Amino acid sequence: MTRVFIIDDHAIVRDVLRRQLQRAEIDVVGEAGDLDDGLRQARRLHPEIIVLDAVLPQTHGLTALTLLRGAVPDAQILYLGAYADPLHVNAAHEAGASAYVFKDDAGTETVPTVLALAGARAGNHRGAPLGHDRRVVEPPSPAKVTSSSRARVGESPSRR
Fold it and tell me: In tens digits, what is the pLDDT along the chain, a chain of 160 residues?
């Protein structure tokens, strides 16, 4: 079973995400409301996937990504970003995000994205597209924003 850890400063968001993930039979091993607690727990719990809010108290999301990547290098990090544009998506990817979900779409996109990341970790879905709109990004190259709403990674900028 996939082990997921949630870092978000809003308890209601953590609660909703935890319930959705658990309904999908995903093991939520812990949660934190700030980066310091999140780093401490993630080091101890060794989650496979971390769901990270881009806006945390006293910490910029990209800084949080970099620190988490260093603290738990084997974890996939699903970044819940506030902006669904290529600049923010690519910056998150460069800072270490494994996937990017536009926060407004987190209620519908988090579970499928966690399942896709878990499948990629298991070698089942590596390179499989996560969809056609700009809410979700799968690494490892610059995002291509399509006309619907999911960004995909893996295509060169010249093919945009």
Answer: 899 999 999 999 999 999 999 999 999 999 999 999 999 999 999 999 999 999 998 888 899 999 999 999 999 999 999 888 888 888 999 999 999 999 889 889 999 999 999 987 666 543 333 333 334 444 433 333 322 233 333 333 333 3
3-159 belongs to which CATH class? alpha beta
Q: Which residues of 24-49 are buried (b: 16+ CB within 10 A; e: fewer)?
A: eebebbbbbbebeebbebbeeeebbb
Every domain of the chain and the residues it spans: 3-159
Quick count: other Cβ atoms within 10 Å of Cβ 65? 23
Nearest to 72 by CA among 43, 50, 96: 43
Q: What is the pTM of this model?
A: 0.79
How far is 35 from 125, CA to CA, in rounded Å?
30
Label residues 2-11 b or e (16+ Cβ within 10 Å = b). Answer: bbbbbbbbee
